[in-house]
Amino acid sequence: MSTHFHPLRLTVIGTGYLGATHAACMAELGHEVLGVDVEPDKISALQAGRLPFYEPGLAELISKHVASGRLRFTTSYQEAAEFGEVHFSCVGTPQKKGESGADLRYVDAVIDSLAPHLTRPTVVVGKSTVPVGTAERLAERLTALAPVGAQAQLAWNPEFLREGFAVDDTLRPDRLVLGLQQEGSAAEVLLRQVYAPLLDADIPLVITDFSTAELVKTAANAFLATKISFINAMAEVCEATGADVTLLSKCLSYDTRIGGRFLNAGVGFGGGCLPKDIRAFMARADELGVDQALAFLREVDSINMRRRDRMVELAREHCDGSLLGRRIAVWGAAFKPDSDDIRDSPALTIAARLQLLGAEVTVYDPKAMDNARKMYPGLSYADDPLQAARGAHLILHLTEWQEFRDLDPAAVRKVVARPQLIDGRNVLDRDDWRAAGWTCRALGRP
Ligand code: UDX
């Protein structure tokens, strides 16, 4: 069914990674958007088209719509309430300090700050990843605090965007999920208008209850983490048997029931989502008394962590059993390519551990250097991959940026002390490197 598009006035509360992307993309769809954040510095930077993180295409899209007049920013909740017909809540849900569960203080603060200003019928839409049961609690709080009462409706619309593809994932998502208290409600009507261009493009829409909508996101991330840990567990078995995990993965990928995506063995998953989300999911299952159902996720987490230990072990082997005083180059700091995000990055945790064990570690990353320097000031940093490799006994390739695949193995060989390379992501062309005289190792390959 084609819906006639009519632009709405939307607010996007929280202008971090998710919010900045959502705000820019909603303006791109044709809506008038007001971005809201409590940090004035963030707001003035965004208004000037500057992003505090790297995401391909996003700064350009923000500038485009600041210029078109469809995108503005404010720190005022009152202004947001007066402006918006629909309010998207896009704040973070980090892991609680010293605990596995999610910290919901920002999600709660959005309702507490916005609701008292809601004097006409409106919809508040949660997009953050939250423990199942949160939406129901927030809906009650919203009704209780809003002057319009039950005419301030809550909906849950999880976001599945990947860093590095955030704009594309938002404008062309695989599916839209709407968690509603009641089908056919005002919330549904308004959200169908918000997403009309996507619905016209035949993006599948699934209407669910709150709990299902909350669970879709956590279940998707748990599945992806499991798929990565599955192939990494196979890599452990390959290492014990002389089999090659990249060939194994290739053979599995032709089975359409399995598929090849998220089946690359290596140093494992990191980032701001997968690790924290599976832990928060286990913590919530504990509270619900279904901890057994998710016991396997503990194993998924341990397999993932073991890959980092294994990389350190392999590095030690390549340094004749002792890391003391050995120069090691680490290529990559971001948790994955096309991102400057270093949260729970396997590359940096491995680099830091090698340094603790006495190695002299020099790191290079195309985009994540500033973030890495701030978080790990004790490591050395180089301006390019060759400079990092100068005098090295060993190179570790830990984040698979295209820049590393484009390097000439012969040129790198000229600057190192020993031509030894371990590919922690299984993407470099080993034949090329070997032909240039390198000793190459990889996780899960003979
Ligand atoms: C993830 C989900 O993909 C996204 O849908 C959700 O909204 C947020 O969390 P993101 O954190 O951007 O997105 O990263 P993703 O592309 O999923 O990669 C996660 C980690 O897994 C990275 O460290 C990546 O290097 C690693 N990975 C991915 C592998 O080790 N092997 C693979 O085959 C795929």
State the separation between the terminal residues, measured CA to CA: 55 Å
Number of domains: 2
Give a count of the beta strands, DSSP E runs of length 2 or more: 14
Can you say what the CATH homologous superfamily of the largest domain is? NAD(P)-binding Rossmann-like Domain
Helix content: 40-55%
- Tell me, rounded to a whole number, the average pLDDT: 96
Radius of gyration: 24 Å
What is the CATH class name of the largest domain?
Answer: Alpha Beta
> Main β-sheet, in a few words?
6 strands, parallel
CATH architecture of the largest domain, by name, is 3-Layer(aba) Sandwich
Which shape, going by the Cα principal axes? elongated
The assigned structural class equals alpha/beta
Indicate the low-confidence ranges by residue numbers. Answer: none
Bound molecules: uridine-5'-diphosphate-xylopyranose
The amount of beta strand, in percent, is 5-15%
- The number of helices is 19
Strand order of the largest sheet: 3-2-1-4-5-6
CATH topology name of the largest domain:
Rossmann fold
Task: Describe the structure concisely.
The chain has 446 residues and is an alpha/beta fold. Helices cover 45% and strands 13% of the residues.
Q: How does this structure look, described?
A:
The protein has 446 residues and is of the alpha/beta class. The chain folds into 2 domains: 9-208, Rossmann fold, CATH 3.40.50; 244-446, Rossmann fold (3-Layer(aba) Sandwich). The protein contains 19 helices and 14 strands. It has a 6-stranded parallel beta sheet, with helices on both faces. Helix 1 (17-29) packs across helix 3 (58-68), helix 12 runs antiparallel to helix 13 (295-318) and helix 13 packs across helix 14. The N and C termini lie far apart (55 Å). The model has no long low-confidence stretch (mean pLDDT 96). The site of uridine-5'-diphosphate-xylopyranose has 19 residues, from helix 10. Residues 160-163, 221, 224, 228, 262-264, 266, 268-271, 273-274, 335-336 line the site of uridine-5'-diphosphate-xylopyranose.
